[in-house]
């Protein structure tokens, strides 16, 4: 029973720390001009090129409606364009603009700086241990229904 309590305590602590780190990264990136969620959309577009909104939703693992709201905001800001599909006018193709590429670079730099601040105090061995542990947890989480 004590081991189970330790697993639960460690798991809850991990979730708390992960949430705090994500919030801080999002705050720093938002201060640089893009939230973490908007940055992720731009990163997918930068990596894959223009995508239909459904494909973008699938690549992000998010509900289409959530992605549509983000894409609309990015379009208003001039960071992406949406065009009608020639074969199916209901489908929209989302493309990264030059302004979007610049905003993405700025946001990624801000994210990199805050992560360096958090994890830069760990030595090479500690970082390797952390990565090993996170990989183990991720493997279990990926294979659990």
UniProtKB/TrEMBL annotation:
Occurrences of domain HTH marR-type (ranges): 1-142
Pfam families reported in the protein's UniProt record: MarR
Protein name: MarR family transcriptional regulator
Protein's organism: Streptomyces sp. 900116325
SMART domains in alphabetical order: HTH_MARR
SUPFAM superfamilies cross-referenced by the UniProt entry: Winged helix' DNA-binding domain
